[in-house]
Amino acid sequence: MTLNSLSLAAKIPQILGQRSAYTPNYVGKFFYFFSCSRTHQNSSLQIVSLSKLNQTQNFTSSIMEDPKRLSLSSPEPEKYSKEMEVAVRAVQMACSLCQKIQDSVISKATSQVQAKDDNSPVTVADWSVQATVSWILSESLGNTNVSILAEEDVQTLSKADKSGLLEAVVQNVNECLSEAPRFGLKAPQMFLTTAEVLEAISHCNSTGGPTGRFWALDPVDGTLGFVRGDQYAVALALIEDGEVVLGVLGCPNYPMRKEWLNYHHRYHRIISKLTPPTSESWDKGCVIYAKKGSGEAWMQPLIRGQKKLVWPNSARPVQVSSIDNPALATFCEPVEKANSSHSFTAGLAHSVGLRTQPLRVYSMVKYAAIARGDAEIFMKFARAGYKEKIWDHAAGVVIIEEAGGVVTDAGGRPLDFSKGMYLEGLDRGIIACAGAKLHDKIIKAVDASWNSSSL
Ligand SMILES: Nc1ncnc2c1ncn2[C@@H]1O[C@H](COP(=O)(O)OS(=O)(=O)O)[C@@H](OP(=O)(O)O)[C@H]1O
Ligand SMILES: [Mg+2]
Ligand SMILES: [Mg+2]
Ligand SMILES: [Mg+2]
User: Fold this and answer.
1) Where are the coiled-coil regions (predicted)?
2) Which site among 104, 140, 336, 453 is 20 to 30 Å from 129 CA-CA?
3) Residues 258, 436: Cα–Cα separation, whole Å
């Protein structure tokens, strides 16, 4: 195919089926990039792959200077691009659903909160999100391809005395799914029946493991934070052959800008006395996502009101902080003392010279905070005998790693997502840091403090 320099710009998108060479291709993270190579035989330039925007510019200028014969081959579609796009859209929907339910849970006090067999809380939101995400993934990616391991089951929900609860879940799921087109997804043709909603929840019956592909879903992580009007997250990860390959974290109360957090806290303290906010002038929440090996993590605002989610919806890259001096670092940990030893981390913080007060935040928002550079260290040391579940960490781990951070257990080993629903073999606790140098210091400090601790 012969192209002159002027027709090239039009030809590339046509070949790639896009409107413009600068149209974002892969979930807003990559712009088309073209690496060029001159083949010996025909002295032509070949488009062999996709690259980033700056390289696109190099490519374009090299073409302008070299109006030779070109042979163009369509690139392979980016791996997991469809899965990522569907996952982010589904999490956006889930966040919108949660925001609505959280406001109603807070205004009706705690009556809507149920206790599971292990006494942990669960709400209409947990089941509604699980059903919604399960339905969207299955419909968009094909029911037979989709295997999901998720936190909630239908036992409590199916009890005879819980019919009101089940009704509320069915209602919420249907309201949320009817909004799917706003998120660029297909809505069901008819309202889902109660049986279909229960089926969507119980379809999440994967047991995980070392082979094949499955999704790990925590519909509401930090349910305690959720019912207290505070931080929580919707966490979705794709795991393939034991490795987390995609992570999406929806943080409905974690604004795009850290400075807006104060506003959020004030808002929630007085929410019961306020009419619901109508202002669209601030981004109350965000969705952060990353693909393994991409070296990039991205954040987009939640969509609100009647706005449509235009892909990739003003996504911007996030990166971990460059602080590697513990004296300047901020560390975060679980809010609940029962979930992690505050006394151990306090001693450790003191020993490495951490000066700032710990940032105690519910849920995987802690992972988001590290990935965005709002804090530098996250530590969780659960009591002996507690087994961490993979859905509480999978999405956060890949997001921090791709944003430039390091996540391991206290022995410095990567977390193992290949052993079913638990992080088996976890050495003591979880340590996530903004960089390798800081991580190394914390690991050494844990070793030094461990034997003298009572953990
Ligand atoms: N005893 C104990 N020890 C350790 N971890 C526990 C424990 N109990 C629960 N969980 C899990 O912790 C999830 C909540 O997240 P965090 O660890 O960030 O805790 S906190 O919300 O900040 O207090 C929470 O996730 P959700 O159930 O999704 O809220 C639990 O899976
Ligand atoms: Mg729970
Ligand atoms: Mg959780
Ligand atoms: Mg949960």
Assistant:
1) none
2) 336
3) 24
Tokens representing residue 182 in the block: 């706003």
**For residue 46, which of 34, 58, 30 has the smallest C-alpha distance?**
34
Which atom of ligand 1 sits closest to the CA of residue 333?
A: 22
Q: Map out the domains of the chain with their CATH numbers.
A: 81-318 (3.30.540.10), 326-454 (3.40.190.80)
Beta carbons within 8 Å of 430's beta carbon, 6+ residues apart: 378, 379, 380, 388, 393, 407, 408, 409, 410, 415
Pick the residue whose CA is nearest to atom 19 on ligand 1: 334
Give the C-alpha separation, 16 to 18, whole Å. Answer: 6
Atom of ligand 1 nearest to the CA of 221: 28
Question: Is 103 part of any known ligand binding site?
Answer: no
pTM, two decimals, is: 0.83
Number of Cβ atoms within 10 Å of the Cβ of 186: 12
Q: Which among 424, 365, 361 is positioned nearest to 390, based on CA atoms?
A: 424
The ligand minimizing its distance to the Cα of 129 is 4
Query: In the structure, which protein residues have their CB atom closer than 6 angstroms to any atom of ligand 1?
Result: 120, 151, 218, 220-225, 334-336, 338-339, 362-363, 380, 382, 386, 389, 392
Can you tell me the distance from the alpha carbon of 262 to that of 79, in angstroms, rounded to the nearest whole number? 39
Contact status, residue 233 vs residue 363, Cβ threshold 8 Å: yes
**Where would I find the beta strands (DSSP E) of 15-120?**
24-26, 30-31, 36-38, 45-47, 70-72, 114-115
Give the residue from 240, 167, 170, 186 showing the smallest Cα distance to 394: 240
> What distances in angstroms separate CA 117 from CA 120, 284, 314, 386, 422, one per listed residue?
7, 33, 42, 16, 18
Residues involved in catalysis: 126, 223
Query: For residue 121, which atom of ligand 1 is closest to its CA?
Result: 27
> Has residue 318 got a pLDDT over 60?
yes
